[in-house]
Amino acid sequence: MNKVNDLMLFESVILHCQMTHNISGTREALVAAQKDGLVDFYNQLTSAGRNVGQMMLSNLEDYQNLFDVEFKKPPDFFDQQAIH
Description:
This protein has 84 residues and is an all-alpha fold. The chain is built from five helices and no strands.
């Protein structure tokens, strides 16, 4: 996979952990992803992490039903204060 796809999958896994564990911070979500086996010791996606990320990006409705979560707004990974 290329680096852009890997980044999108990684961001999706972080968002997944934030939603399923009710976490607001990125660092805490990364720790949760490691505990869940979605990210390894080197912060690389595992095959399970890739599957979760791909499901979020390709079939959002099935993802929401499977994990019983709902997107309230599109994910935003940019610091809004830095833009203004």
